[in-house]
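Subject: sequence -> structure tokens, single chain

Hey, anyone have a minute? Need the predicted structure for the following. Not urgent.
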Amino acid sequence: MTSKRINRMVKGEQFQRRILPWGLGLILAIASFSFGFPGVAHAQFSENTGSAEEIFRAAYDNRYTWDEDFPGFAAEVSINHEGEVDQGIVRVEPDLSVDVINIDREEVRELIANQVQMEVTHRRRIPFEQIHGHSTFTLEGKDEEGAWQIREAGSQMESFYKIKDNIITQVNRTFDGIAVTVDTIGTTNSPEGYLVVQFQTNFRDANTGEVLEREDVRDFHQKVGKYRFLSYRALRFGKEGNPADKLNADTLMTIKAFQPL
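Reply:
Had a minute. Here:
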């Protein structure tokens, strides 16, 4: 998502909901939430000692991701977006490119592709040094729940994180006048690292603090062979209140019948 596109959404008085998750995907990709390495033992690290960079790196390396042997897959996808249901096929190639076919509506194809691409981004392994090697990390104490508060400054935009139990529990970034906070609400553990199963995002005007949109995302994953795939995603949106309180999701996506390529 380009900065011009984000600005157009803000000027339009509210975000287009089908685009929000892709904006979040970009933020999470920049934040490098998920670059663990399946098959490699994760280092045990005590958060009671160590520098800000060591604490952040331990959480960074604790995420589940796919290894270099990932074969790609094709699967059936069904999406219920604001009351309309579409079904088709999604493919993730070994190079982690994404394609959606057999769905007529372009905006729905884009929505599915963006959701799957966000998941794929979280499974891509990129060395810590490539993303954060030129950054400076600063410890800013612990919050009331015992999470480390860490600020990152460097070649990218400044970021502020919370880390607890080797999990990145919060990411804060500001870009093009939009302040974004991503909170990890729930995780599940695997031998190869943890996966986020619920997260919430707040989008605010960085100057006024006005809430532009909130979203709640809940995921399930299915293990096929040695790999874990996103099999279910529920998205709830709401500018007022907590979208997690909504009885029905605004968007439900189900992926099933996985076939390795």
